[in-house]
Design a protein that fits this description.
The protein is α+β, with helices and mostly antiparallel strands. It has a single domain (8-178), classed as Nucleoside Triphosphate Pyrophosphohydrolase (Alpha-Beta Complex), CATH 3.90.79.10. The chain has helices at 24-29, 82-94, 149-158, 167-178, and strands at residues 8-12, 18-23, 34-44, 50-57, 68-69, 72-74, 101-111, 117-128, 141-148. A hairpin with a 5-residue loop joins strand 1 and strand 2 (18-23). It is found in: Cytoplasm.
């Protein structure tokens, strides 16, 4: 079972200036703005259609368990560069070793039924998939799939309840860089 532990997150202001750090659970209980990242790994399929690797979050996650989202998402640790943290977590969650390119950021706030709130300054990073074998971490990911962009956009429009609240705004930033 994946639980929230004593990891720390970086608290920031609306311009991503570091203020301090706090325990991850406390930041989510108190709706404190903190630094995060969302990773998007794209590829072209055999029909030359753009696809995105998405994951279904492990059902026991502290929030949004069982929902589909981008390839990888998490928080850098205090003192850790966002790009380095994103590459580390991409390997820890998805088993993929890949250099990433930062392409934008946004702030969002989402309250959950369990009393936690995500309030994040979310950095968006992308990459074209470098073919490799990979094995996902079952403590982080229940399932994954490659999905074409038109199919994904339709699913987000018709069944938004199956996706994390940050996925669509982060996807919009990522897609602006790959189309």
């Amino acid at each position: 079972m994946s639980t929230i532990d004593t990891d720390y997150v970086i608290l920031v202001d609306e311009n991503d200036n570091e203020i301090s750090s706090d325990e991850k659970l406390s930041a989510h209980e108190n709706a404190l703005l903190h630094r995060a990242f969302s990773v998007f790994i794209f590829r072209k399929n055999s029909e030359n259609q753009l696809e995105l690797l998405i994951q279904q979050r492990q059902a026991q996650k502290y929030h949004c368990g069982g929902l589909w989202t981008n390839t990888c998402c998490s928080h850098p640790r205090p003192g850790e560069a966002t790009s380095a943290a994103a590459e580390r977590r991409l390997f820890e969650e998805m088993g993929i070793t890949q250099a990433l390119t930062p392409v934008g950021h946004f702030i969002y706030k989402a309250e959950f039924s369990n009393g936690l709130t995500e309030f994040e300054y979310d950095h968006v990073l992308i990459a074209e998939f470098r073919p490799q074998e990979f094995t996902v971490n079952p403590l982080e990911v229940d399932n994954y799939q490659w999905i074409t962009i038109p199919k994904l956009i339709l699913a987000l429009e018709t069944s938004p309840e199956h996706y994390t609240p940050w996925f669509k705004p982060a996807l919009d930033i990522a897609l602006a860089q790959v189309k």
